[in-house]
Amino acid sequence: MSGRAQLMWDEAVTGYNFGAGHPMDPVRLALTMRLVETFGLDRAVRVVAAPPAGDSTLRLVHRADYIAAVRGASADPASADGSYGLGTDDDPAFGGMHDASALIAGQSVAAAEAVWSGAADHAVNFSGGLHHAMPGRASGFCVYNDAALAVARLLELGAERVAYVDVDVHHGDGVQAAFWDDPRVLTISLHEHPRTLFPATGWPEETGGAAAPGSAVNVALPPGTGDEGWLRAFHAVVPELLAAFRPQALVTQHGADTHFEDPLAHLAVSLDAQRAVAEACHDLAHAHADGRWVALGGGGYAVVEVVPRTWTHLVAIAAGTPLAPTTPIPEEWRQEVYRLTRQSAPRRMTDGREPRWRDFEDLGYDPGDRLDQAILATRRASFPHLGLMP
Predict the structure, then answer these.
(1) 42, 79, 182, 323: least buried by Cβ within 10 Å?
(2) Per-residue b/e over 14-41, b at no fewer than 16 CB within 10 Å?
């Protein structure tokens, strides 16, 4: 391993733009990169702009007819075919949609190639993590599933076991679907309960197809779950599973929409807890995957207050130069925020929280607690498949 970290970035990814008023505002990407640069993190990593994913790469996950439909809608948005999930409120067609989507996918695929080849220990693509796209349909603001494509590319390169951990507030349904019957891939998703949030999937009982029982793990968190519960659930499930599965590479999705200020969901997680999970994923990659770590972005719709800080912490952790939570945010970035959005920017890289959690193994569980019920439901459904005690 080289010990280097790689950041995938091409300014053109901000062309992934569903239009004014859509929650997936590309300014969140631009502001994240500007914050990365303001802290000098672009000098602590190797910044690489990869080419767009070609059709042969996209077909590792997506159907040829769907790719053709995206191309058609990209050339003529008015002709978008709703049967492919295009031209909907969630995924309105826009000019250049194929090119922008393929570019984001190309960054994640190149990140996977870098960590597998040893060109980098860790690679980050915060423009990626578009985990809802299905093989033949756009869904949930996602056109091409770059996360699934990164996993598929690792398998194509020879990986025998790849783990995917998704901490977005929404279930990582598209990645789960792509590898439902593939025992080489373990997908783990922690998300708000499907009763209360899109895409209404991700129940504990979803544990993989007949050809790969136990390959999918889902933790359905009660609405209102905050730092302690979120971290408790993560540490009660993810480390044991990774230790048992022994992945050769770890792909993680770091949607920032678990945050208490996010307008589209109902968890109450702080920036500081999100940072703690990013650190945990980094440590788990070294403990169980020889350091091979591909870290992706995802959802997150508090585009000034939350997303840039969370993903800048992610880049800093991958670079081996983590930022202290109390680090002041330079005034130049705050001025850039105001110039682009007319919003006031945060002043520090913290929400002022000190994340702690009760350890599941040491302190046991409370059968009357909704969070512990969720943890136990997941462990009972999934752990025996990997030879673990619930």
Answers:
(1) 79
(2) bbbbbeeebbbbbbbbbbbbbbbbbbeb
Nearest to 102 by CA among 145, 68, 166: 145
Indicate the domain borders of the chain: 5-51+110-386
Which amino acid, one-letter code, is at 271? L
Q: Which residues pair with 137 in a beta bridge?
A: 134
Please tell me the predicted confidence (pLDDT) of residue 2.
45
**What DSSP string runs through 68-123?**
HHHHHHHH-GGG--GGGT-SSSSS---TTHHHHHHHHHHHHHHHHHHHHHTS-SEE
Which single residue is written with the structure tokens 């025998």?
A: 160
| Distance from chain centroid for Cα 115 | 17
Which residues form the catalytic set? 132
Phi/psi of residue 269, nearest 5 degrees: -90, 145
Please state the pTM of the whole predicted model: 0.98
Under the banding of pLDDT at 50, 70 and 90, the label for residue 80 is very high
The superfamily CATH assigns to domain 5-51+110-386 is Histone deacetylase domain (3.40.800.20)
Closest CA to 98 of 60, 61, 53: 53
| Region of residue 94 (left: phi > 0; alpha: psi -120 to 50; beta: else) | beta
> Angle at the Cα of 299 (from 298 to 300), degrees rounded to 5?
125
Sign, Cα dihedral of 374, 380, 386, 387: positive
